[in-house]
Amino acid sequence: MKHGQISSKELSDFIRERVTIEETYSRSMSKLAKSASNFSQLGTFAPIWDVFKVSTEKLASCHMELVRKLQELIKEVQKYVDEQAKAHKKTKEEVASTLEAVQNIQSVSQALQKSKENYNSKTLEQERMRKEGATQRDLDKTGVKVKKATEVYKSFVEKYATTKTEFEQKMAETAQKFQDIEESHILHMKEIIQSYSCSVEDTHKQIEELHQEFVNNMENTSVESLIQKLAESKGTGKERPGKRKHNNSLLIHLNLYDSEEEDERRKFHVEIKPVQPNNGTHQHKATIDELKASIASSIIPTTPLGAATIVPPPRPSSRPKLGAGKLSGINEIGRPFSPPKVTNSSPPPAAPLARAESSSSLSSNTSLSASNTPTVGTSRGPSPVTLASQDALPIAVAFTESVNAYFKGADPSKCIVKITGDMTLSFPSGIIKIFTSSPSPAVLSFKLKNTSKLEQILPNQHLLHSDSSQSDTNTRDFWLNMPALTAYLRKNSEQNPTSSYYNVDVLKYQVCSNGIQSTPLNLAVYWKCGPTTTDLRVDYRYNPEAMQPHGPLSSVQVLVPVNGGVTNMQSIPNAIWNADQNKSLWKLNDISEKSENEGSGSLRAKFELSDGPSIPATLAVQFFNEGSTLSGVDMELVGSGYRLSLNKKRFASGRYMADC
To answer: Compositionally biased, Low complexity: which spans (predicted)?
Structure first.
């Protein structure tokens, strides 16, 4: 226990030292950002210093935010140190009787050893006198001494047995208390370290986003733009002085760019005729109008985009509507249980999220890869149906969440919970033709709702952009990089040309958890291990408040390892015993509010053993839900041009375990 107090204080000192380092670094970054303001503001390079200044200020803020979080964590550690000292003091008082038992057995052991030596000495003396032919009187005196030594020895043997039993009982109870204290200490320390790790991890992610923002800003700052800024700040006008006196025409070459790194540049030749001196202001205005008309007649709309480097698009103020003509090439699959008939007057069918029958990209294991590249799913539904005329393109969305939980005994405060989720968009294959044939397809924007319940959000940096300056903490706006999305979908259609739909992972997130209240199925396990039998009870309780909306838990399975050489098992309800793996398995019906006892119940089993006792093991639970999420997060399309044909939600158990 003393070592536990020492480690708690040392952990507090370690975090405090990290705070000092982060604070020093943050102040140094702030000082560096201020120095950027003092650098030369002359020349074409001047705007770059503004980029450096803003980026460095944000970096300093990130580290100062980490300082704040770690300072709060130090307060929690110090609070735990104080509580730990009180608990240890109480434990010392509780185990005082054990110290007395230790002293008793030491005293009795010494007395027993002396009585044994006295008994052996008197017995040997009696035997010696018999062999030497001592008188009967002397033998009688010795016999009395042997008898007395025998009685004393016997009494100490009996007293030692009683003292030993009490000693072993007290020691077992005390050792269990010490073990419980150490287990609780280790779990608490791990929770502190997890909070520390999450704070540092969040800072690293923010720094990574800042670096990416810096890179994007530098990529978007072209040579032409820097020259243009200098020209605008130093220039005296856009017309060359005295040119109107010449009769010769001035030929202007205009270069247009759809991105900065476009492969092909289109050159336009505009001839401006000289101004006639007698026509005055009216003639000057007419010449400008002719210039505008000449440029307009020479450019936009049917020429497709060239192969361009993907750069983050600006956030759209509103989404333009698509043309009302027939959208050829867009196919949509009807629901398997109700194939619709599409007519010009009836609404188009809903698009189910594309997935394979057994290995959907929306399974509980779905996550963004290390490079944040999208995954592709293939549809195995019925034959596609061609859409009628409409002005909105169908997409589908799926939210898939995984809940990981660890329950310790029947103490809800020891429950550890982590919930993660993924958001996936699905696009019909025909939409690729619309994207590639349009020089500027409508930007797909959406609002993520109920984000206040999310601890962190990790967008796919290659495809998704967001506004981090929003004041509403319960929503967050995102929009897709349409050139990047088009490139990905085109590449995936080339790799899987027969697919009707393509799934793209756009973001993943971690949900703020509230301990056991965030778990959809509460657990408590009890073991009673004897030399020949083991009794097991698992209590469970359905918690509908953990999900939105309330929904049943399906395919619930409870797997419990039992060692000790199980020869027979009796269980309520019936379980399956696997002798090869030494595990019992319960398969339960759907658990919901409509179940017996509103979803609460117990699993009981008695195991007969050949090599007991058993050692209590960690049990595992599996389940899933269709139609609900644990976070309550949702998505809403913003603007026009697209419609949501399906919003699919589900969650499943990850590492869901319980211990005694």
So the answer is: 352-374
Q: CA of 197: how far to CAs of 63, 66, 379, in Å? A: 14, 11, 40
In the structure, what pLDDT confidence band is assigned to residue 50 with cuts at 50, 70 and 90? confident
Smallest CA-to-CA distance from 465 within 450, 481, 452 is with 481
The answer to whether the beta carbons of residues 457 and 451 sit under 8 Å apart is yes
Rounded CA-CA distance 234/638 in Å is 42
Asked whether the whole model's pTM tops 0.70, one would answer: no
**Of 578, 152, 635, 658, residue with least CA distance to 404:** 658
Residue partners of 553: CB distance under 8 A and separation at least 6 = 520, 521, 542, 590, 591, 592, 623, 624, 625
Segment holding 213, helix H or strand E:
helix 136-220
Q: Which helix (DSSP H) or strand (DSSP E) does residue 395 occupy?
A: strand 393-408
537 forms beta bridges with 526, 604
Residue 104, phi then psi, degrees to nearest 5 = -60, -45
Of the candidates 579, 584, 588, the one whose C-alpha atom is nearest the C-alpha of residue 527 is 584
Confidence of residue 440 (pLDDT cuts 50, 70, 90): confident
- CB-based burial, 641-659: b 16+ in 10 Å, e otherwise: bbbbbeebbbbbbbebbbb
First CA to last CA distance, the chain = 22
pLDDT reported for residue 338: 28
Res. 97 pLDDT band, cuts 50 70 90: confident
**Other Cβ atoms closer than 10 A to 428:** 26
Residue-level pLDDT at 98: 86
Torsion 278-283-288-290 (CA) sign: negative
Q: What is the rounded distance in angstroms from the CA atom of residue 571 to the CA atom of residue 580?
A: 19
Tokens of 468: 């981090």
What is the DSSP secondary-structure string of 448-479?
EE-GGGEEEEEE-TTTEEE-TT-S-TTEEEEE
* Cα–Cα nearest to 521, from 588, 571, 454: 588
Q: How many other β-carbons are positioned within 10 Å of the β-carbon of residue 593?
A: 11
**Predicted pLDDT of residue 319:** 35
Residue 49 pLDDT level (bands cut at 50, 70, 90):
confident
Chain mean pLDDT for the chain: 78
What does the chain come to in residues?
660
Q: What pLDDT, on a 0 to 100 scale, did the predictor assign at position 241?
A: 60
Which tokens in the block code for residue 598?
């509103």
Report whether 548 contacts 568 (CB < 8 A): no
Closest by Cα among 371, 369, 370, 349 to 361: 369
Which amino acid makes up residue 403?
V
pLDDT digits (tens, 9 = 90+) for 333-392: 332 222 233 333 333 333 334 333 222 222 333 333 333 333 334 333 333 334 433 568
